[in-house]
Amino acid sequence: MPAAWLADDTPFRDPADLLLVHDHYITRLLHAQGVPLAALGVGGSTVEPREAWRALCTHWRAFAGTASRIWLTDALADVFGIEETLSTANADATYDAIADQLSRPDFRPRALFERFGIEVLATTDDPLDDLRHHQRLAADPTFSGRVLPTFRPDVYVDPQAPRFAQNVARLVESVEAPLTFAGYLDAIRSQRERFIAQGAVSADHGVIDPYTTTLEGVDAQALFDAAVAGELNEAQAREFRGHMLWQMAAMSVDDGLVMTIHPGVRRNHHTETFQRFGPDTGHDIPLRTEYTDNLRPLLQSFGTARDFHLVLFTIDETVFSRELAPLAGFYPSVYVGAPWWFLDAPDAMARFRGAVSETAGFYRTSGFIDDTRAFLSIPARHDVARRSDASYLAKIVVEGRLPESEAAEVMRDIVGAIPRKVFKL
Amino acid sequence: MPAAWLADDTPFRDPADLLLVHDHYITRLLHAQGVPLAALGVGGSTVEPREAWRALCTHWRAFAGTASRIWLTDALADVFGIEETLSTANADATYDAIADQLSRPDFRPRALFERFGIEVLATTDDPLDDLRHHQRLAADPTFSGRVLPTFRPDVYVDPQAPRFAQNVARLVESVEAPLTFAGYLDAIRSQRERFIAQGAVSADHGVIDPYTTTLEGVDAQALFDAAVAGELNEAQAREFRGHMLWQMAAMSVDDGLVMTIHPGVRRNHHTETFQRFGPDTGHDIPLRTEYTDNLRPLLQSFGTARDFHLVLFTIDETVFSRELAPLAGFYPSVYVGAPWWFLDAPDAMARFRGAVSETAGFYRTSGFIDDTRAFLSIPARHDVARRSDASYLAKIVVEGRLPESEAAEVMRDIVGAIPRKVFKL
Amino acid sequence: MPAAWLADDTPFRDPADLLLVHDHYITRLLHAQGVPLAALGVGGSTVEPREAWRALCTHWRAFAGTASRIWLTDALADVFGIEETLSTANADATYDAIADQLSRPDFRPRALFERFGIEVLATTDDPLDDLRHHQRLAADPTFSGRVLPTFRPDVYVDPQAPRFAQNVARLVESVEAPLTFAGYLDAIRSQRERFIAQGAVSADHGVIDPYTTTLEGVDAQALFDAAVAGELNEAQAREFRGHMLWQMAAMSVDDGLVMTIHPGVRRNHHTETFQRFGPDTGHDIPLRTEYTDNLRPLLQSFGTARDFHLVLFTIDETVFSRELAPLAGFYPSVYVGAPWWFLDAPDAMARFRGAVSETAGFYRTSGFIDDTRAFLSIPARHDVARRSDASYLAKIVVEGRLPESEAAEVMRDIVGAIPRKVFKL
What is the spatial distance between Cα C196 and Cα B68, in angstroms, rounded to a whole number? Predict the structure, then answer.
């Protein structure tokens, strides 16, 4: 969620806006059921929110078995006291019940933030974001929550990102650096420092694949010039991205920001939908992803660097047992990220622990974090993750693989000590 | 099974012919145990059927744990009343017991078809098949079953198929079209119409990978000419196949045939066996398969086309959570096909639901269908699939993820409403 | 373990040397927790063994959930009678308790060998090893165990192995063969014969991928010359390796050695660690691996050869259902190897049976064997494997997929008849 929501503490607009319109887990499955995205208010399309809510209620059965159903059912029950199963028949009544409560002060963002017991919330931010909402929150004596920015430089380091050249130009100008590769790196370093000063603990990287490579200074400068001129071919663009991922690791080693990588997604798979409704509208589709060889140059350089933390996420679950657990089981820097996105659900979480624990144990994983755009689902997501981990631990206790007393301590660490350590909180 | 069996209603020949010779799940595992295919009557080899049956009984232990064992055990018990475990000792007695019953009228194909309660049976047919057996069945007042042809154009659209040029020549001649790319497409369209007139609801496509691509008219004509002349290299052949898969989707959008894709098999892995015994003799081996990028051109064009149904099957189960569920969770046209071939078994089915449901629910899957060559296994296969799905639903009910009343409705839909809708029955 | 240990029957040195220093499952996870390998005595580094043991005890919680924890807990309890959970507090006491027992005669290698009930132990040996320790053991009337050498020719058949040219030179000299491709093959054949004479039953092959290819004689000679001259590029080196894997199969067909393949590992991922501590120090990381197409040339030639046994191992578990079970379910020569390395643990073993059995049953698998460097873990490893298999069998019995009486026989075969047959013991 944007820091502005908490800084302004403006009431949520309506049930659809809060629970549906911005949650691409829900809108994509309604779209698959034949509901047009325009009828759901996606991408700024105008819609009567009650109609969007009716569409959800009418197609509620389609969510049976999904993670979204668990989260929404939980939020409706725990936050709004609604325990009925959604249906066409109760669409209006449930809409009204939620809308009525949303107008009350205890349903504003800050009140819910406190009610949910959120200890730390990290937003994801553009390196040139002025972070003034974070500043306001930090300075506000009436708000005690911890809301941290996260450095997310993707559109400044991928030469195939839209408006890359302009992005780079604005970046170097921001710190009055020259438009050279060295100036560009300096500018990134400076902005990271600004984020750190505002409380940031991590830098997040979304890449098509986690390819990394070292480059000689001259080569890097030549690639940079061509990148800014828009003259890289596909292979050269990959080289540049791969080198920048390596540079981002170098900076994390220097400044201490935890490095997280979220690779392996074909973004905006359906171009027509992207053009009409924008990004993050439910058609980002995972790709097979390779870590062992792609990350090797980075790990050769920094894998054993002191206090470097590298958290590897995946939506290709085949890598959990084959690549991520073995890497995290050797390199002191590497942690296996909690199940992400399509894998953030009970069955997938059980597979994750089953695939990772036997090689890397529990202490080389990140502990649960979520990356939701759906604020109300936060408690349910953490609850599901805890129950899932507890279930796995219970299984190995029953099978005689771990004493119950130790399993209880591991469970406490998964929830608290591990994520605090991994993310340097 | 061939439509002729039902049209003619000729008695099954003998126990081996009915239960063993044509079931490559069984003959391949006997072959792996050291029994020569020639000793099993495979590929038209002459064998005393009782001897083939003895080989099965002698090696029965090798089937422990396999799906074939469940199916055959079930068919023996339910159809023939044989409840003993097969063994060398009872080989002759069980052979005789089956043979004796096969000679009775209530063991003829039509009687079993009715006894099994089969609502619809779809055969797989060559586009130039005259479909006369289907016509006879449809016209027969004494047979009330629904037996539909399925359009399977592989050997007319893959330039590397045996006798491709001759196939294409026969195809265009069949409708007196010119030997141009346009004439070729017209001929395919005409034959699809003929299939539709005979009740066909789907077109099935077996491809090495689900690569798709658009082509300009001129390029397509040039590739077509070279394909007919046998002058395509490997890459060009892939382009032609990929474009034809895209064209098949275009036709399905127009004429309404449900498009099913069965990719990812290295056919006839052992050339010597293929030369001696022909295709479908147990050495088709799966390959890693990619859907996200391969299908993108097709889905860009037709993914949201009205009433287009595209059912994606796989024998690479890694794609269930990574690619197929995310695709089916967005595109209204895409359905995840039920576990197929090597995955058509209890453990694999449980993995399928565990991998797909959390992202795509139950209503973006095809519901169980089987593609068996073993007529007697049909009830057992559906029974296993239903139990497996019921088991998964029971699990999520017990875990508090779905109310029992809803799970019961989902279960009914999986068996009836979902496959009827997906296959437009 | 080296045959010399048993031949000499020298007492184990100390608890750390026996249980920790040489077990890269343990040292890598301690390294990941921040303990330097040098502090653990890895790679010949000098360390006070009690300090290394303390490091293990202090970080014991990190092993929760891992296979190593099970094995070590079991060894401590069953061999040394230590049932406490390791911790900083009891590090010295447990060290002393083990050290005290190690000095007793009944804790010498031969005594433990007998106590563990080991029927056959196969070492892995260099083709030029003189095998004198095996000879001494075989000739020793006071030792009745069966200790066999295994032919492992990797560094003589991979042109990218360190000192390949020197290795080949020594190899051909050893049998006074000319330095031609034919002479080279003759030398390998001769050394295999020598191993067979000393009781060897198998030849083991560690390859980056299981690529195989046939080559004409002239091509092979040219590649061989270039290989010895160190002039092969990456693609040519792969051709040579692929052809040698095919040649190794040809020799196994001739001389009867069971062929085992262990592919798919990026060895020595972290170069700095390799340079300082040597190989097998915990940073060998698995790679995605393909078998269907890579092994096809080998299987075209030898897949149905009489008495040829080819056991395929993997640490890419995605191939179990997709490639290995279908291959072993057709080719009489192919067996699916038991879960290996990172997969040698309860959850992974359950997934192995779940992925393989429905297609290939139990009789196309190798039965459990382990490849441990940790002598004391042998009983625990076999115990875990047996319990895991028994658990899978119990599951299919309860689900009505196999009668209990048959499951019991399958279980006995998994432990005895199957590995004896597969490895020609």
Answer: 39
Contact A296 C269 (CB under 8 A): yes
Instruction: Count CB-CB contacts under 10 A for residue A217.
Output: 9
User: Using the 8-state DSSP alphabet, how is residue B369 labeled?
Assistant: -
φ, ψ of residue A43 in degrees (nearest 5): 65, 30
Contact A96, A406 (CB under 8 A): no
CB-based contact, A300 to chain C, within 8 Å = yes
Q: Which domains does chain B have, with CATH numbers?
A: 3-109 (1.10.2020.10), 116-266 (3.20.20.140), 309-425 (no CATH)
- Share the mean pLDDT of chain B: 96
Is the overall model pTM greater than 0.95, yes or no? yes
- The 10 Å Cβ neighbour count of residue C213 is 18
Burial readout B236-268 (b: 16 or more C-beta within 10 A, e: otherwise): ebbbbbbbbbbbbbbbbbeeebbbbbbbbbbeb
C13 contact B CB<8A: no
| A285 beta partners | A266
Query: Taking CA atoms, what residue in C is nearest to B71?
Result: C401
Residues C384, C359, B113: CA angle, nearest 5 degrees: 135
Distance, in Å, from the CA atom of B171 to the CA atom of B157, rounded to the nearest integer, reads 11
**Mutant choice from B363, B366, B392, B422 vs A, greatest count of A C-beta within 10 A:** B363
Contact list, C270 vs chain A (CB under 8 Å): 299-300, 303-304, 330-331
Q: What is the pLDDT of residue B418?
A: 97
Does the beta carbon of C347 lie under 8 angstroms from any beta carbon of chain B?
Answer: no
Mean pLDDT calculated for residue range C135-162: 96
Distance CA C147, CA C110 (A): 11
Rounded CA separation B134/C110 (Å): 75
Contact C361 B318 (CB under 8 A): no
Tens digit of each residue's pLDDT (9 = 90 or more) over B324-348: 999 999 999 999 999 999 999 999 9
| pLDDT at residue C185 greater than cutoff 80 | yes
Question: A120 at the B interface (CB within 8 A)?
Answer: no
Which portions of chain A are predicted below pLDDT 70? none
Q: Does A334 touch chain C (CB under 8 A)?
A: yes
State the smallest CA–CA distance between residue C167 and chain A in angstroms. 28
**Residue for token pair 């887990």:** A25
- Residue A84 CA to residue B405 CA, distance in Å, equals 13
Tokens of C93: 């006491």
End-to-end CA distance of chain B: 20
- The letter for the amino acid at B324 is L
Q: How far is C247 from chain B (nearest CA, A)?
A: 19
Q: Name the percent of chain B lying above pLDDT 70.
A: 100
- Cβ-based contacts of A269 with chain B (< 8 Å): 292, 296, 299, 327, 330
Residue A296 touches partner C, C-beta closer than 8 Å: yes
Residue B19 token pair = 């239960």
Q: Distance (Å, rounded) from C-alpha C275 to C-alpha C270?
A: 9
Q: State the pLDDT confidence band at C133, using cuts at 50, 70 and 90.
A: very high
Give helix then strand counts, H and E, for chain A.
21, 8
Flag whether pLDDT at B369 surpasses 90.
Answer: no
Q: Which residues contact C218 (CB under 8 A, 6 or more apart)?
A: none
CB C365 within 8 A of CB C356: yes
Chain A CA closest to residue B323: A286
pLDDT band at C13 (very low <50, low <70, confident <90, very high): very high
- At C10, list the tokens: 């020298």
Q: Is the pLDDT of residue B218 over 90?
A: no
Confidence (pLDDT) at A265: 97
Is the minimum CB–CB distance between C64 and chain A shorter than 8 Å?
A: yes
* pLDDT reported for residue B129: 97
Q: Say how far residue C362 (Cα) sits from the centre of its chain.
A: 21
The token duo for B7 is 């049209």
